[in-house]
Amino acid sequence: MNNADPAQIVTLAHSAAHVALITLNSPPANTLNRTVRERIIEITADLGRDPEIRCLVLTGTGGAFTAGADLREDMGLTGDRIDEFLTGFDGVLRALEDFRAPVIAAVNGAAAGGGLELALACDIRIAADDACFVASGVNVGLIASFSRLARVVGLGPAKEILLTGDRYPADRALRWGLVTEVHPPGELLPAALAKARRIASRPPLSVEAAKACAALAPGLTREQATALQAEKFHAMVATDDHREAVDAFLSGRAGRYNRR
């Protein structure tokens, strides 16, 4: 599908109010070739400028979430082209990590190599019960995933996954905290979209601040974390959305938020 329309190999749908769905649509492997990476970056940039978007879901079609980079495309990279590839791949990961709103990975199948890295760049990961996770760097004489994986699951499980290059099923990923839910395949996307709607129903400024602060948390001292919480708490207290959220909670109704 190298000559396919980028809009067809990575599709965008608005499945509910404030929720966008990105689908990797180049089965069977949904590889992250350059066209796919650039398309994801383009979509997330556009969605990031849309204040109505409050949550994003990322999934794949067929039997794979994504098998990662196209090895045939990337064979023979040397010198500056290696740096170009690494920068480009990091760009798509950062596009998800730095996306203003939360990103949910609905891992519908194999998340291997760069596909595991892509899932790790999302804020929340849920999986189909037949999904699997592979840090395949050691299988092809490369290295990847060590930083994000260790932050998510801890050093012990991360070394197990990284050093063996083995396939780890969804139930093991759940025990390690790599995913937070496992569903039958037909229930995965509805579950992801339901979670996205739940997130989108919360005050967006608060959700976005929580995402940004949580991303910083591992590198903060206790004093820095306390100061950051105080800063954001003061900012949130002053918003109309905070007052609306309290009133909605006390009234037992859904809140109506305007990002103010």
Automatic annotation (TrEMBL):
GO biological process terms on file: fatty acid beta-oxidation
Superkingdom: Bacteria
Transmembrane feature ranges: none
SUPFAM superfamilies recorded: ClpP/crotonase
Ranges in coiled-coil conformation: none
GO molecular function, one term: isomerase activity
The entry's keywords: Isomerase
Family according to the record: Belongs to the enoyl-CoA hydratase/isomerase family.
Name of this chain's protein: Enoyl-CoA hydratase/isomerase family protein
Organism for this UniProt entry: Spongiactinospora rosea
Taxonomy of the source species: Bacteria, Bacillati, Actinomycetota, Actinomycetes, Streptosporangiales
